[in-house]
Design brief:
- The complex is a heterodimer of chains A (115) and B (112).
- Chain A is mostly beta strands.
- Chain A has no helices and twelve strands.
- In chain A, strands 2, 5, 6, 10, 11 and 12 form a six-stranded mixed sheet that branches.
- In chain A, β7 and β8 form a beta hairpin.
- Chain A is globular and about 45 Å long.
- With 112 residues, chain B is an all-beta fold.
- Chain B is built from no helices and eleven strands.
- In chain B, a hairpin with a 3-residue loop joins β4 and β5.
- The radius of gyration of chain B is 13 Å and the shape is globular.
- Classes of the chains: A mainly beta (115), B mainly beta (112).
Chain lengths: 115, 112
């Protein structure tokens, strides 16, 4: 079974600065997807970014980018120009391309943004 | 707004009772997933349906069951409720098996 680990329970960043959230995963599969979801205080789960394992190029969505290291099974999220609205729980998730396609989540990282 | 709707938003019930949570996926989405978010267990996958058929099961208790109807909405039934079942239950949907999942706002269940 796949496991996802987020080793930073909490992180803080100054507004307008850059922060990186870490995620590692364990799998024996070669074809899979990785995601970062944001959960603000409203509890809504919002998809931030996704990465296909077969793509070497790191995904980017505006101020959000990932550093995907397949051999190291590492998938970190970089948030540039942090804004107050970025404060939330961030979950890293793994999805197999085999039967089921369910998401396996890490334990989450709480990001605080200081004005 | 993801386009996925869940009702009710909040539910308070007593131990031993049975409840039904409802999910309407985004228009055109065939896959529905149920997840449970609790303080103890984090976010866990429960069960998946694709076009009316059960596709995968996760850590779903035998007291829990689900189904997906012909109009593609899904219901999660929780019975013989225990205090530990108190959690946020999410439904997510996607257009096919190989696509990202979009989450509903969740149903917060409190068992007293």
């Amino acid at each position: 079974a796949q496991t996802v680990t987020q080793s930073q329970p909490e992180m803080s960043v100054q507004e307008a600065e850059t922060v990186t959230l870490s995620c590692t995963y364990d799998t024996s599969e070669s074809d899979y997807y990785l995601f970062w979801y944001k959960q603000p205080p409203s509890r809504q789960m919002i998809l931030v970014i996704r990465q296909e394992a077969y793509k070497q190029q790191n995904a980017t969505e505006n101020r959000f980018s990932v550093n995907f290291q397949k051999a190291a099974k590492s998938f970190s999220l970089k948030i540039s120009d942090s804004q107050l609205g970025d404060a939330a729980m961030y979950f890293c998730a793994y999805r197999s391309n085999n039967a089921g396609n369910m998401l396996t989540f890490g334990g989450g990282t709480r990001l605080m943004v200081k004005p | 707004d993801s386009g996925v709707t869940q009702t009710p938003k909040h539910l308070i019930t007593a131990t031993g009772q049975r409840v039904t949570l409802r999910c309407s996926p985004r228009s055109g989405d065939l896959s529905v997933y149920w997840y449970q978010q609790s303080l103890d267990q984090g976010l866990q996958f429960l069960i998946q349906y694709y076009n009316g058929e059960e596709r995968a099961k996760g850590n779903i208790l035998e007291r829990f069951s689900a189904q997906q109807f012909p109009d593609l909405h899904s219901e999660l039934n929780l019975s013989s409720l225990e205090l530990g079942d108190s959690a946020l239950y999410f439904c997510a949907s996607g257009p096919s098996l190989s696509y990202e999942q979009y989450f509903g706002p969740g149903t917060r269940l409190t068992v007293t």
